[in-house]
Amino acid sequence: MRLRRVVQSDTFVGWAFASPAVILIVVFGIVPIIWSALLSLQRTNLLSPAEWVGLDNYRALPKDPFFRESLLHSAIYTALFVPLSVAGGLLAAIALNRRVHGIRWYRTAVFVPVVVSTIATAIIFLWVFDPNFGLANWILGKVGLGPFGFFESSNGALYSVVGMTVWGWIGFDVIVYLAALQGIPHELVEAAEIDGAGTWGIFRNVTIPLLGPVTLFLVVWSTINALQLFDEVYLATNGGPGTATYVPVFYLFKLAFQQGVAGYAAAIAYVLFAVILVLTVVQLLVGKRMVHYAA
Amino acid sequence: MSELPVIDVVTRPSETVAPETPAGRRSFLFSPWHLVLLPLAAVMVVPLVWMLVTSLQTLDETRHYPPSLVPSSLQFGNYTEVLQRAPFGRWFLNTVIVTVACVIGNLLFCSLAGYAFARIKFFGREVAFVLILATLMIPFQVIIIPTFLIVRSFHLIDTLGALILPNLAGAFGIFMLRQFFRTLPIELEEAARIDGASRLGILFKIVLPLSGPALATLAVITFMWTWNDFLWPLITIYSPDHMTLQLGLATFQGAHQTNTNLLMAANVMSMLPVLLLFFVAQRYFVRGIATTGIKG
């Protein structure tokens, strides 16, 4: 009788339901977070016994030219990728929100790259950006530009990565913006029309403020993803030419899994996390003020 | 991020991307917007079309400038040659196994946990839920080294288990389903409890049948995340027999950099399943994507 009562109690049933997922998340989420922090205080290659070095790994980071270069590239990449994909996504969503002939096809065309994997995207763009036989140089040549080296030029590789990833990601911003545009109540638009507002006035004073929260979400989200760039760099440039497209996650991967410098790599991971966290909090605080102000 | 429209998209089950313009306005054959939309669509589609065209060309045709946009003949043999040179069938099968396992795992475990967190008042619930939510904020790169060590201690490195086990349940799925379950009318569940139904019975016979759109969204998100994942397989899988499509594709690219036509054929094959699914279930993809960023 007593066993039966325990088995039917909310606490037993609740934990029975939650525990498979909770155990998985503790083992593969919570434990690694703590372990990673400990690793970052060690000198270890993951095979031989580790040695405690305190904050040495963190102290070494500012003096590491590769790390500094990775951060710089990441900053440039993020500063270009975020505005291009978010603003571009907004403009595309406004155009795709029109009820014109064939709009479904246009939407599908813009959505499709979102489901294309990062690796497939990189393979496509290695070919489109091929300096000798690629489509990009041919089209740019028609309007009197180029030829460019794209991924193979140390000046252009990072910008080529920006172009490629904006292509791959912009559909995501478009989908989010389209959903938001369609959520704008007709009454607001009609009220503004009755008050004599023109198309631009409605856009400026009704649409834009109402898109504030979504824009904030996209900016935060794109920034987080931009700082975690890896797949496309790994495949399209492998960090090169030279170190022209080294970014933190790529450097971290090389250190930990190719050179066996795991403790130092863990420190990089934590610094990257701190950067992401600080930027996110700042964006949310600034955004909250602006979004609130507009609404 | 509570003010974000994220969960909204999920909780409005019947909504699709529908035109917003006031009713009564007709669609015209030509509008100035076409001048914006056409170049936009072209930029998005042309790289994909060119990939397809290149995959049907001879190697000589790909080494031609200006680029030939129409193949002189259709070299379907490129596709069979790719299949002979690399175990794409095996990679496809591996990816299907891993993806199906992860989708089923997430649907099951996240439903169970999501329901417990939504409806059952149990000791330690709040603490456990906050811990789970905290993991949502941690970038994967931060935990990648210890996760590798944990998976290694389970002797799963270089097996499909390394790709499946850590991804059988996720904080996002639990959170999303919990939010969705809380929007369902509780009266049905209470009535069933009075009739003596067990929690498990309620979940499977009442709650889950009402949760189709949310479950479909979670399935699509998990599917895309798993199918397209690259960094984790790159670290945990070495032997060609255990690779996934994305990892196999990357190694194929490394080995056949100059065989552009074969490379493009391999690329087309790798994305065909996702594209087919996208066209069949575009609604759920769009909702899933609007719910969260899910590209690897």
Structure write-up:
- Chain A is mostly helical.
- Chain A folds into 2 domains: 2-39, no CATH class; 60-294, MetI-like (MetI-like fold, Orthogonal Bundle), CATH 1.10.3720.
- Chain A has helices at 2-8, 10-39, 56-60, 65-96, 103-115, 118-128, 135-142, 157-182, 186-194, 199-210, 212-227, 231-236, 248-258, 262-294, and strands at 42-43, 51-52.
- In chain A, a hairpin with a 7-residue loop joins β1 (42-43) and β2 (51-52).
- Chain A starts with a helix and ends with a helix.
- Chain B is globular and about 75 Å long.
- By secondary structure, chain B is mostly helical.
- The longest helix of chain B is centred in the middle third of the chain and has 32 residues, at 88-119.
- Chain B starts with 5 loop residues before the first helix and ends in a 5-residue tail after the last helix.
- The model of chain B is unreliable at 1-24 (pLDDT under 50).
- In chain B, 68% of the residues lie in helices and 0% in strands.
- Chains A and B meet through α2, α4, α5, α6 and α8 of A and α1, α2, α5, α6 and α7 of B.
Strand content of chain B: under 5%
Q: CATH superfamily of the domain at 87-259 and 271-291 in chain B, please?
A: MetI-like
CATH architecture identity of the domain at 87-259 and 271-291 in chain B:
Orthogonal Bundle
Enumerate the strands of the largest sheet of chain A in spatial order, edge to edge or round the barrel: 1-2
Count of distinct strands of chain A = 2
What is the 3D shape of chain B? Answer: globular
Oligomer: heterodimer
Query: Total number of helical segments of chain B?
Result: 16
For the record, give the distance between the C-alpha atoms at the N and C termini of chain B, rounded to a whole number. Answer: 21 Å
**CATH class group of the largest domain in chain A:** Mainly Alpha
Computed structural class of chain A: mainly alpha
The Cα radius of gyration of chain A reads 24 Å
Q: Roughly what percent helix of chain B?
A: 55-70%
Indicate the proportion of strand residues of chain A.
under 5%
**C-alpha end-to-end distance of chain A:** 60 Å
